[in-house]
Amino acid sequence: MIAAGFGLLGVCLLIGAWLGSPSSVTGLATAAKVFIPLWLTGAGINMWFGVAKVGYSVAEEIPYFLLVFAVPAAVALFLAWRFGHG
User: Which of 18, 20, 76, 77 is the most buried (most CB within 10 A)?
Assistant: First the structure.
């Protein structure tokens, strides 16, 4: 799932680069910021699937949800900061 998050981040960055100005990286910063709520939704769906379909408890799934969400989101926040100051 973490790899899926990085894949989604890559797609968002490609779209941001495509829609943004060639001389500016603000499109990339915006794309990284847009990724975070999208990934929160995706990680939440993954958690729901684990609880509703597989049978794990919410308490069992929360640590995995936090890890699955936090790793790609931290990279996105770093990229948003970096491209926002570039």
Answer: 76
